[in-house]
Design brief:
By secondary structure, the chain is an alpha/beta fold. The chain has two domains: about 200 residues, 3-Layer(aba) Sandwich (Rossmann fold), CATH 3.40.50; about 90 residues, Alpha-Beta Complex (UDP-galactose 4-epimerase, domain 1), CATH 3.90.25.10. The chain is built from eleven helices and twelve strands. It has a seven-stranded parallel beta sheet, with helices on both faces. Helix 1 links the parallel strand 1 and strand 2. Helix 4 packs parallel to helix 5. The protein is globular, with a radius of gyration of 19 Å. The chain binds nicotinamide-adenine-dinucleotide. Nicotinamide-adenine-dinucleotide binds next to helix 1, helix 2, helix 4, strand 5 and strand 7.
């Protein structure tokens, strides 16, 4: 199977590429505006190729007639799209449409998995959210994701692609550095203390709940999306809220303390940041993932497992240094 990943220099693209290149069943083409590195920690790096391309102008260069599937991950994230409207709308909408058109013309009907987000939702929200709730995004990023979801529905209805738009929960625990995203602390409050570094939690209410998914479960669900039968959803309804779990700030602190001992909590402090609070409290905190479960997508077992997995991956990458 030959699989293209766009935005492959990014966090999710690198994770998925590593996983696909470990099982050896796929040839993987990595495409990004920054030349994507071929993951070194995988078993079959020779099955990967890397292309530097701006998908706004070069989408048709990456669509070849031997492709079997495309993961659409490239884009400008939430803080970037809010800061620069033109950039967000051109990259997130125009380049995605150019990519879909290139697939329609050069390799029609293949599986396309589009990375959407729970950021399509905005207030007011019911207590429990599912795909029947009308998204009312409160960010440019969420609005751009919603436009692309509609394109995925329409291109699939017309038979141009066999698409799914998967709405990701917030991914935690994410390796690397803090980002400008409002959700950054949801990884930072675990990752930083485990690295001996302090982290400020920008909400003081420890009962504040976030809907999250571990990188490991996300990648397993993305791989599953390659094999999901197309007719599990009607051709004009291709949207799935990927499973997450609701975890409060207190739950996260408890998990950290269970894995690394109570003293580690001394590295955490709490300080309300009103600008972030407004964004964080506009996100859904509870989903009914029945559609995803019926299609075979899986949730995390618990946040404690997520922290254990993260700690294990830290040990492996430290050993490799
Ligand atoms: N990470 C999360 O928590 C999360 C949550 C919900 C949805 N998502 C979605 O998943 C996808 C992947 O997320 P991520 O965390 O890996 O993002 P990321 O920011 O790490 O990666 C995005 C990549 O897109 C590339 N890119 C930007 N403009 C481009 C262009 N014109 N042409 C080609 N490449 C371009 C960037 O260089 C970058 O490497 C995104 O679409 C994101 O919206 C992520």
């Amino acid at each position: 199977m030959k699989i293209l990943i766009t935005g492959a220099a990014g966090f999710v693209g690198q994770l998925l590429a590593t996983e696909l290149l470990n099982d050896g069943n796929s040839e993987v083409v990595l495409a990004d505006v920054i030349k994507p590195p071929i993951p070194t920690s995988c078993k079959y790096p020779k099955k990967a190729s890397s292309i530097k391309v701006d998908l706004l102008t070069g989408a048709s260069d990456v669509i070849t007639e031997d492709l079997d599937a495309v993961f659409v991950f490239h884009g400008i994230m939430s803080a970037g799209s809010e800061e620069n409207f033109e950039l967000g709308i051109t990259v997130n909408i125009d380049s995605s449409r150019a990519l879909l058109d290139a697939i329609r013309q050069k390799r029609p009907g293949i599986r396309v998995i589009y990375a959407s987000s729970q950021a399509v939702y905005g207030l007011p929200l019911p207590e429990t959210v599912d795909e029947s709730i009308v998204p009312t995004p409160q960010s440019s990023y969420g609005a751009e994701k919603l436009v692309c979801e509609t394109l995925i529905n329409e291109y699939t209805r017309r038979g141009f692609i066999d698409g799914f738009a998967l709405r990701f929960p917030t991914i935690s625990v994410r390796p690397g550095r803090p980002t400008a995203a409002a959700s950054s602390f949801l990884s930072g409050m675990i990752r930083e203390p485990l690295n001996g570094v302090p982290c400020v939690i920008p909400v003081v209410d420890r009962s504040f709940v976030s809907w999250i998914c571990s990188p490991k479960t996300l990648v397993a669900n993305l791989k599953h999306a390659l094999t999901v039968a197309s007719d599990l959803l009607p051709p004009h309804i291709r949207i799935v809220n990927l499973p997450g779990i609701g975890v409060s700030v207190q739950d996260m602190m408890n998990a950290l303390s269970e894995i690394a001992g109570p003293d580690i909590l001394k590295l955490l402090s709490e300080e309300e940041q009103p600008a972030l609070k407004e964004i964080l409290y506009s996100w859904p905190t509870k989903f009914d993932n029945a559609r995803a479960y019926s299609m075979g997508f899986k949730p995390d077992q618990s946040f404690v497992e997520t922290v254990k997995d993260f700690q294990f991956s830290m040990k492996i990458s430290n050993a490799a240094l």
